[in-house]
């Protein structure tokens, strides 16, 4: 319940502005709200599960293999790592600030962190472990039953495992970037270049139309025209993984990422993806749902061209005609969105 209240306050905050801090035409969001911290013993238990490779079929994979704390909880690859003998077909998302999201994954097919947590564990190309077998394995691992009793006052269940993983991820918050300090009232927190870049982000470059609110994401779905990559078309294992996904979602096999269409089956959602939040974005290259854009400079060039080639792309994207200096300023602003990542190491496991 407390979570819902915090979230509601946050959403109200989304509409607020901070006129005193910026040029009159720039409407800035409210600072990111401070959320209620989850109970410490659940976060700690979740941290163990996050690093525990026994949560995978062959004991080689854990959440942390793909969501590496040293890489802002992403994996730094264009297309995600995968369960041995398989290959993945999407880019790993960073877990920074997932506590603020209410729709998860590139296509928003999951609606809570608890619901999402089971997905990778039983996925054939992520951790490949039967969820009921996972429960039995942990129940027979000396140490875990006691830790679950302390944190949940109950036996180990699928629900308590998902809850602990969710609460650990809720502790991965960044809200001390120069941009955050600026929003909280420190005008010197941003360099001149970053301030000019911010004015572009909220003005001429139109980024805030989708990267809106305190999180810099509207949590909605847009087609920006990011194209398919040769590797996804040609790699037979990646093709197999994507076709398997499409069939599971009740779709025809195709060599195109369906995006949000997989969830809604509405043709208007073909190729639409959830707007990513942008905290720590300088540390999470490469970019986009398929990792096809290597650097932030190239992302800026992409938007400067008016996005990709897709005829169905959002009308909010138009060529921007930015000067070299404006591109550099926008880059300085994107870089100012990085703060202190809560890096945790592997705990001692039961
Ligand atoms: C094999 C690599 C891999 C492993 C292992 C893995 N993930 Fe992921 N994770 C991904 C990829 C790829 C995506 C994006 C998938 C998509 O959108 O279809 C993702 C997305 C997510 C998201 C959504 C973030 C957002 O912004 O919406 C969460 C939350 C998440 N993973 C948590 C976990 C947890 C918890 C575990 C362990 C139980 C885990 N992941 C294990 C690769 C992995
Ligand atoms: C029409 C809505 C929209 C507008 C306008 C927009 N974006 Fe995006 N942005 C998105 C979506 C959706 C994605 C993910 C697309 C994908 O993965 O295919 C994205 C991805 C990104 C990424 C990559 C993040 C990551 O983690 O991979 C960056 C950086 C970015 N946008 C910055 C900007 C900047 C800077 C501007 C202004 C020049 C801008 N965006 C304008 C919707 C938008």
TrEMBL record:
It is found in: Periplasm. Residues 1-22 form the signal peptide. It comes from Geoalkalibacter ferrihydriticus DSM 17813. GO terms for molecular function: cytochrome-c peroxidase activity; electron transfer activity; heme binding; metal ion binding. The lineage of its organism: Bacteria, Pseudomonadati, Thermodesulfobacteriota, Desulfuromonadia, Desulfuromonadales. This is Cytochrome c domain-containing protein. Pfam families: CCP_MauG, RoxA-like_Cyt-c. InterPro entries: Cyt_c-like_dom, Cyt_c-like_dom_sf, Cytochrome_c_Peroxidase/MauG, Di-haem_cyt_c_peroxidsae, MauG/Cytc_peroxidase. Keywords: Heme, Iron, Metal-binding, Oxidoreductase, Periplasm, Signal. Its cofactor is heme. Binds 2 heme groups per subunit. Heme c 1 binds at residues 63, 66-67.
